[in-house]
Input
Amino acid sequence: MDYKTIRTIVAMSKSNAKPCDIAEEEYRLRIDNPATYRSGIIFDAHEIFAMCVTDLVTCMNYIANTEKAVEKAWNELSRFAQREYLMQLIAKEVQNT
Output
């Protein structure tokens, strides 16, 4: 099932309730979900949040696996090679700013 915005849920609703009540109920369901990351940032009386949906979990797993591969490759480098790489990286950053 694709993630639908609260606005889409309200538009699809067959309820006779006010749209703002439908939106508030959906917001509460999402914000109280254990898989929700609560930011602590309040905007227009509602906390900004992120939900851990399938696409997000897939990307997080890909990043975690890639990170392990990068760490393994990094640890196989000599200390000299690691230091040289970091110095070049810092030099490029300084040049680009």
